Amino acid sequence: MKRAEFPALQDGHAYLDGAAGTQVPASVIDAIAGTYRRGIGNVGGAFPASHRADEIVANARQAVADLVGGDPGGVILGANMTTLTYRLANTLATGWQPGDEVVVTRLDHDANVRPWVQAAEKAGATVKWADVDRATGDLPTGQFDALLSERTRLVAVTAASNVLGTRPDVASITAAAHNAGALTYVDGVHATPHGPTDRTALGADFYATSAYKWCGPHVGAVVADPALLDTLRPDKLASSSDDVPNRFETGTLPFADLAGVTAAVEHLAGLTDATGTRRERLLASMTAAEDHEQRLFARLLDGLREIPGVTLHGAPQRRTAVAYFTIDGQTPRQTAETLAAAKVNVWNGHNYAWELTGALGIRDAGSAVRASIVHYNDGTDVDRLLDCLQRT
Fold first, then answer.
1. Are residues 302 and 240 in the same domain?
2. 23 in Cβ contact with 6 (< 8 Å)
3. What number of other Cβ atoms are within 10 A of residue 124's Cβ?
4. Are 7 and 39 found together in one domain?
5. What are the Cα distances from residue 329, in Å, to 311, 333, 334, 347, 366?
6. Number of domains observed in the structure of the chain
7. In 333-367, which positions are buried (b, 16+ CB within 10 angstroms) versus exposed (e)?
8. Are residues 129 and 263 in the same domain?
9. Does 108 share its domain with 208?
10. Cβ pair 271, 233 in contact under 8 A
11. Same domain for 19 and 35?
12. Distance of CA 76 to the CA centre of its chain
């Protein structure tokens, strides 16, 4: 899918490392560089360069809202998902009391675990854990009935595991949380690049995503209902804006990078020939991207299963295109280095899935190798990985 648009893909490497960060198309590079060439000032000024910054921020909020199905007035922008999650955890925790409860899962990236655990500890709240089925890598939905109570204040859950690809039944989990009177925080960082996203359908009071996982720059965003954000009072400078969502954004935003965010969303919206609003084009494009990735993923899984000594970790019922595996007699790092020598880029280690790799019993041994597929990958990338492993 439009590989020629990505300058980095011309270097002869097979980039199967997208789960850690994607390459960017020329349109994103041009948008960022062009912003600096035109000249920008800080927001809120009386002069044209400042007006350009105002427009860039508004466009980025609208672009993220179109991508995930949200309201631009509820799009909080920041350095990354982890920083924003800590900010919101600390803000929400000001209303928690001893005896209140927070539910986190062992499937999640640590960025959707540790901020909530630490905030709960400071507030004297109790942390409850949803466990993973170690054989399949699924997150059983039924366990949440026992975990939730009238004292539950928040449920944090991922829309997709960044190492196993597991897509839990988020809508059912959030519905149960809402029935208990709790808020929901959904980590969509890994899920967003791999299919259409609808924040409302997921039942996410807060939906987190990172542009660098969907061909944009290193910018994070959390999307919520503006009315909900209006009820929250984060720590802020006395002199900074109290408007929503500005009150959640500390310091000056990276305006040029935000221009890149909008360009990245436009790139995704243009993956097919679909017409209509940008939201409609995104739904069509991301559906096509998911189909493309799943076809390549089936090829990758079939090939890995035929290689002696390969162990695939997790076999969830619904998953994104990410394989997490080990090879007998090799550490994950050795496997990754062998592939790197053949110009095949993969990751090794826990990849911040700290609780999950611990639950699987592989963390202390270096965890596993992760090969991930995004829309710009093709069959040659998969075949190069498989050919290299077959020769080792």
1. no
2. yes
3. 12
4. no
5. 11, 12, 10, 18, 13
6. 2
7. eebbebbeeeebbbbbbbbbbbbbbebbebbeebb
8. yes
9. yes
10. no
11. no
12. 15
Q: How far is CA 80 from CA 24, 87, 105, 349, 355, in A?
A: 17, 11, 21, 21, 21
For 305-351, the pLDDT digits (tens) are 999 999 999 999 999 999 999 999 999 999 999 999 999 999 999 99
Entry pTM: 0.98
Residues 7 and 68 in one domain: no
Residue 172 three-state SS: helix
**First vs last C-alpha separation in the chain:** 30
Segments of the chain assigned E as strands: 14-15, 75-78, 101-105, 126-130, 152-158, 183-187, 206-210, 220-224, 310-312, 322-327, 344-345, 347-349, 368-372
Among 220, 236, 269, identify where a domain stops.
269
**What's the half-sphere exposure (Cβ side, CA atoms, 13 Å) at 308?**
3
The C-alpha atoms of residue 32 and residue 326 are separated, in whole angstroms, by 39
Tallying the residues shown for the chain, one arrives at 392
Which residue in this structure is represented by tokens 């490392």? 17
Cα distances (Å, whole numbers) of residue 142 to 22, 167, 168, 279: 34, 15, 12, 33
Contact 368, 1 (CB under 8 A): no
Provide the domain limits for residue 240: 28-269
* The two structure tokens encoding residue 184: 């929901």
Q: What is the pLDDT of residues 204-219, one digit of tens each?
A: 999 999 999 999 999 9
Q: Which residues pair with 90 in a beta bridge?
A: none
The reply to whether 278 falls in a domain is: no
Q: What is the mean pLDDT of residues 74-103?
A: 98
| Domain shared by 42 and 125, yes or no | yes
DSSP per-residue codes, 71-85? -GGGEEEES-HHHHH
Structure tokens at 332: 């994950």
Q: How far apart are CA 69 and CA 225, in angstroms?
A: 11
Burial class of residue 216 in the structure, from the number of CB atoms within 10 Å of its CB (0-12 exposed, 13-18 middle, 19+ buried) = buried
Give 63's contacts (C-beta < 8 A, 6+ positions apart): 261, 262, 264, 265, 266, 278
Residues 120 and 149 in one domain: yes
Asked if residue 57 is part of any domain, the answer here is yes
Lookup result for tokens 């009391």: 97
CA 209 remoteness from chain centre: 5
Residue 21 within a domain: yes
